[in-house]
Specification:
The protein has 482 residues and is an alpha+beta fold. It has 15 helices and 16 strands. Helix content is 32%, strand content 22%. The protein has an eight-stranded mixed β-sheet with strand order 6-10-11-16-15-14-13-12. Strands 1-2-3-5-4 form a five-stranded mixed barrel. A three-stranded antiparallel β-sheet has the order 7-9-8, with no helix packed on it. Keywords: Aminoacyl-tRNA synthetase, ATP-binding, Cytoplasm, Ligase, Nucleotide-binding, Protein biosynthesis.
C-alpha cells in the first residue's frame, strides 16, 4: 500500500474508516500521555493519535515529545472528542527521530514563544510552525498557478542566464561574478581590473532581470515567460527588499501596452483565484492571524477588509486604469499632499512616485487595484516605447493594496533608430547590447512584457508584512546564513 499523507487521510477518511493504516509525521503536541497531535507538513491540520499507554512500553512513551518523528500503525475510527472527525487508535509506534532539546535551548521548537524575528534566525526550523507551513504551502500554490496560467495560454517557459554581462535596469546595483583570487587581482597598464583574464573574459554579474534575453526568445517563439532567481545589490534593510528573489517575466510578440495591461490583470486574478480555490485551510488560518494582527494597530491604520475578503475583491473588481498624468493631479490636490502628510511631497509632474503615493491611490482614492500607465520617459528604462508626445513612455505599473507596485512593465521600443537614440541619451553601451539591437534589425515587431516579484505576490496573498517571511532563506545585507 502506498504511503498516505495526513491530508489524504483527513480528506478521504471514509475510504479508510475502520481500516488499519500507517502514517508518518512529527509530534506537535502530546497530552496526558494519551493524545498525540501528528503533522506531516501536507496540511495545517493535525491527525490525532490515541495511545492506550497500558499497551505500550513506558520507556517508549517517555521518549515521545514535541518535534519527535514517528511511524504510527493503527485503526482509523470516528473521533469521540471535539476538533477532529477521525482519529487513529495506535497499535504500533516507532520513534524515527528523538527530540534532543536538552542539547540546545529547550524553547527552540516552541513557536508560540517566538517572534517572527527570532524565527528568521531559526529559518531551518520555522517550516515546522503552523504559520510558516501555511505560508510556504501557499507559495507553492502561487508558483504552480503561475506555470499553469502560462501553459494554458500557450506561453513557452524559457530559462534566461543567471550570470550575465548585461545590466537590464541600468541601475548598476549588481553583484559581480569573478573567479579571481581577491588577494591577487590582475590589473592592466592603466591600473584597472583586467577582466580579460577572468573566467568569462569580461566583467560579469548576477542578473537583475531576464527581460532582455526573454525579448530575444519572444522574437522567435511569440509568447514566452521566465521564472527564476534575480539579484539586487541594494544595501536596504526594509521589509520590502531582498538581495535574492524570484521574478516572473512574460514577453509577448505583437502585444501593445493595452494588451500588456490585460495580460497582467488576467494573470493576477487567475493566480489569486487558484489560491482561494486550493488553499482554504491555510488561508483560513492566515485570515484569523491577519485579523488578530489588525487589532493591535491604531484604528485608522487597520485594514478595511479581512485577508480572504481582500483577495476575493481583487478577483471580482476590474482594475482601475489611470494615466500617470491623472494620478499626479489627484496626488497634487489631495489633502495628504496639501497638509504635508506625505514623506515625499508631490510638487510637479515628473515626480517618481513612492510607495506611499501608490498606496494612497489604491487604498484611499480608488479603493481597488490600480494600473498606472504612460510615465515620464526620464524616470523609466531605455527599452520602453517612446510615445508620440515625446515626453512619456508606454510603461505600466500594477498597484495593489498594502503592497504598492506589484507588477512593472511596458511596451518595448521596437524602432531601431529610436532605441539607439534612447540608449545614447541614457549612456547604455550599444556594443555590450549588440545582440539586443539585432532583434530590432531582423523582423522587429511591437512587443510587450512585465515583471512580477514572486515574493511580493506571496506577501499580498498571505497577509504577511515582511518579505523575509515569504522566502525560505532570505538573503539581505550582512545576512547569508543557511
Amino acid at each position: 500500500m502506498k504511503k498516505q499523507t495526513i491530508k489524504e487521510v483527513l480528506q478521504d477518511y471514509k475510504k479508510v474508516l475502520h481500516h488499519d493504516i500507517t502514517v508518518y509525521g512529527w509530534v506537535r503536541a502530546f497530552r496526558s500521555n494519551r493524545f498525540i497531535a501528528l503533522n506531516d507538513g501536507s496540511t495545517i491540520n493535525n491527525l490525532q493519535i490515541v495511545v492506550d499507554f497500558e499497551n505500550f512500553d513506558a520507556e517508549l512513551i517517555s521518549k515521545i515529545s514535541t518535534a519527535s518523528s514517528l511511524k504510527v500503525v493503527g485503526e482509523v475510527v470516528e473521533s469521540q472528542g471535539a476538533g477532529q472527525t477521525v482519529e487513529i487508535i495506535a497499535k504500533k509506534i516507532i520513534i524515527l527521530g528523538d527530540n534532543f532539546t536538552e542539547e540546545r535551548d529547550k524553547t527552540i521548537l516552541q513557536p508560540k514563544k517566538h517572534s517572527l524575528e527570532v524565527l528568521r534566525e531559526q529559518a531551518h526550523l520555522r517550516f515546522r510552525t503552523n504559520l510558516f507551513g501555511a505560508v510556504f504551502r501557499v507559495r507553492h500554490a502561487v508558483s504552480f498557478a503561475i506555470h499553469s496560467f502560462f501553459n494554458q495560454n500557450q506561453f513557452f517557459y524559457i530559462n534566461t542566464p543567471i550570470v550575465t554581462g548585461a545590466d537590464a535596469e541600468g541601475a548598476g546595483e549588481m553583484f559581480g561574478v569573478t573567479n579571481f583570487d581577491l588577494n591577487n587581482i590582475p590589473r592592466d597598464e592603466q591600473g584597472d581590473i583586467d577582466f580579460a583574464q577572468d573566467f568569462f573574459g569580461k566583467k560579469t554579474n548576477l542578473t537583475v532581470s531576464g527581460q532582455l534575453e526573454g525579448e530575444t526568445a519572444a522574437m522567435g517563439l511569440g509568447r514566452i515567460y521566465t521564472f527564476g532567481p534575480t539579484f539586487r545589490a541594494e544595501n536596504s534593510n526594509t521589509t520590502r527588499h531582498l538581495a535574492e528573489f524570484w521574478m516572473i517575466e512574460p514577453e509577448v510578440a505583437f502585444n501593445n501596452l493595452e494588451d500588456n495591461i490585460d495580460l497582467a490583470e488576467d494573470f493576477l486574478k487567475y493566480v489569486i483565484q487558484y489560491v482561494l480555490d486550493n488553499c482554504k485551510d491555510d488561508l483560513d488560518f492566515l485570515d484569523k492571524r491577519f485579523a488578530e494582527e489588525q487589532k493591535s494597530k491604531p484604528e485608522k491604520e487597520r485594514a478595511k477588509e479581512g485577508l480572504i475578503e481582500k483577495l476575493e475583491n481583487v478577483v471580482a473588481k476590474r482594475f482601475k486604469r489611470v494615466s500617470y498624468t491623472e494620478a499626479i493631479e489627484i496626488l497634487l490636490n489631495s489633502k495628504e499632499n496639501k497638509k504635508g502628510k506625505f514623506a515625499y511631497p508631490i510638487e510637479e509632474w515628473g515626480a517618481d512616485l513612492q510607495s506611499e503615493h501608490e498606496r494612497f491611490l489604491v487604498e484611499k482614492h480608488f479603493e481597488c487595484p490600480v494600473v498606472l500607465f504612460d510615465y515620464p520617459k526620464e524616470i523609466k528604462a531605455f527599452y520602453m516605447k517612446l510615445n508620440d508626445d515625446n515626453k512619456t513612455v508606454a510603461a505600466m505599473d500594477v498597484l495593489f493594496p498594502g503592497i504598492g507596485e506589484i507588477i512593472g512593465g511596458s511596451e518595448r521600443e521596437a524602432r531601431l533608430d529610436v532605441l539607439k537614440t534612447k540608449m545614447a541619451e541614457m549612456h547604455v553601451d550599444e556594443h555590450e547590447l549588440w545582440w539586443y539591437l539585432d532583434t530590432r534589425r531582423f523582423g522587429s515587431v511591437p512587443h510587450a512584457g512585465f515583471g512580477l516579484g514572486l515574493e511580493r505576490l506571496v506577501l499580498f496573498v498571505t497577509g504577511m508584512t515582511n518579505i523575509r517571511d515569504v522566502i525560505p532563506f532570505p538573503r539581505t545585507p550582512k545576512n547569508a546564513e543557511f
